[in-house]
Design brief:
Elements: H1 3-17, E1 26-34, H2 41-54, E2 62-68, E3 71-74, E4 79-82, E5 98-101, E6 105-112
Parallel strand pairs: 1-2
Antiparallel strand pairs: 1-6, 3-4, 3-5
Length: 114
C-alpha cells in the first residue's frame, strides 16, 4: 500500500515547509486527489489514521480529501471538458490527450492550532 509512504511524505513536506511549527499544531491537512492519481481516497484515509496512530505528534490532525475529476483540453474546439468512463473524448467528439486536471496529488491547505 503506497498510501502509507505518501502520508509520511506529506508530513515530511510539512516539516520542511514549516520548520518552526510544532507538529502538534497541525489541525487539518487538505488534499486534492485527482481521479487519475492512482490514489484511493479510502486507502489514503486509512493510511493517514495508521501513521498518526504511530506518531503521537500528529494525533490531533485530520485529513480532508477532495477528489478532482479529470478535465481535458481540446485543441480543435479550444474547450475544456470532463471525460466519461475514462474515454478521453472532448464534448465535440474529438479525442484529446491534454489533461488539464485530474492527475494531481496536492496539499491544498494546512490549518494549524494557535
Amino acid at each position: 500500500m503506497h498510501e502509507i509512504s505518501l502520508v509520511r511524505n506529506i508530513f515530511h513536506i510539512l516539516q520542511e515547509q514549516y520548520p518552526d511549527m510544532a507538529p502538534e499544531k497541525v489541525q487539518c491537512i487538505y488534499l486534492q486527489v485527482g481521479e487519475l492519481s492512482n490514489v484511493e481516497p479510502i486507502a489514503m484515509q486509512n493510511a493517514f489514521e495508521a501513521v498518526i496512530e504511530d506518531d503521537a505528534r500528529y494525533r490531533h490532525a485530520q485529513l480532508k480529501i477532495t477528489v478532482t475529476p479529470v478535465l481535458i483540453y481540446c485543441s480543435d474546439c479550444k474547450k475544456t471538458s470532463g471525460i466519461q468512463n475514462y474515454h478521453f473524448i472532448c464534448s465535440c467528439g474529438k479525442p484529446s490527450k491534454e489533461i488539464v486536471q485530474g492527475d494531481e496529488l496536492l496539499i491544498s491547505k494546512v490549518e494549524f492550532n494557535e
